[in-house]
Amino acid sequence: MPNNRAVAEQRALNMKKKLQRSFQTFKDDYVSFMNDMINKRYAKKKIRVVFDCGTSYQGTTLNEQLLQGPDMTSSLIGILTRFRQDQVAIMLGVESMFHQVKVPPEDAGLLRFLWWPDGDVSQELQKYRMEVHLFGAASSPSCACYALRKCAEDNKSSFDAAVVETVLCNFYVDDCLRSVASEQEAVKLYQDLKAICQTGGFRLTKWMTNNLCCQAFYKRTTEVKTLDFDQESLAMERALGVLWCIRSDQFKFQVNIQQRPLTQRGILAMMSSVYDPLGMLSPVVPPAKNILHELCRLRTGWDDAVPDHLAQHWSRWMEELQLTNFGVAVQSLEAQLHHFSDASETGYGVVTYLVQKNSSNQKHCTTSWGRQGLPLLNP
């Protein structure tokens, strides 16, 4: 790797100017974070400094020289689906996960950076090096996930299979979603999961659950995230990007309709803002995708006005889009999965329904998973 100290010094001077003209709170937080990085090798949660490992110097970057490593994250769809399986839902995270994993000493020299002693920009820049993996490096996610999974694999004989399985199958990088059948299981999982992760130096934090009794138990610790179940706005959390209403124990989806130019670019921007990994919105999305499909077939420009007949279809779809907020039940008692698929000239789709039955033999059907698509355009 070439010595890019000159570039680092110039970027440090740019940061100095930014700190001098920013609000004092930003400067204090940034300086506090960097001092912590130097003294303790981990970051505070209020601010996350991302090191730019993609800066090019003499035709190369650090990320280009790093091996990304295998993708060791569990399936996002699998984690969200299992999260809905049992009655007591639990969500938690690993505190500063990347910073708990050491970098081999022979590689630490590649992670050098410049900073002012104690954040005092009037002093000369000093050179430091990271001894842990950092945010921004292409290799960090794979290395951190490997280290976490190694905790489970090395301690299989000391913990229940359910705890080991949680580490191996229910973590998405530093976020964990899991559901269990009872309060007793939730409490035991809390105790054992903390213990098995601690063997590798990982501290679990931000514990949340939909069960009031378990929430009260978690509150006795310092790792719990305080929730107010009496206020709807405070009982909503993002579970891997999907809104989870903790009080009602439902996934919710919000489609924020914004006024955008009625062009191909504007319609695509609107559609791209919909995050739906489980395909719950599949029944309402295809009409809008068909409009984009037709615009591509007509070869209209990105910023050209949409033809009148398609503009009418788009306006009608926007007006009829009433599914701005709806919930999907998380709890499951006795259940069956029913699968359906179909296709036509305008689109195709597959859906799985979860049919639940309670002790009174009452049945409830909800969408579990779905996918939809459009046929390929002829060249």
Automatic annotation (TrEMBL):
InterPro entries: DNA/RNA_pol_sf, Retrotrans_Pao, Rev_trsase/Diguanyl_cyclase. Pfam families: Peptidase_A17. CDD domains: RT_pepA17. It comes from the Eukaryota. SUPFAM superfamilies: DNA/RNA polymerases. The lineage of its organism: Eukaryota, Metazoa, Chordata, Craniata, Vertebrata. It comes from Takifugu flavidus. This is Reverse transcriptase domain-containing protein.
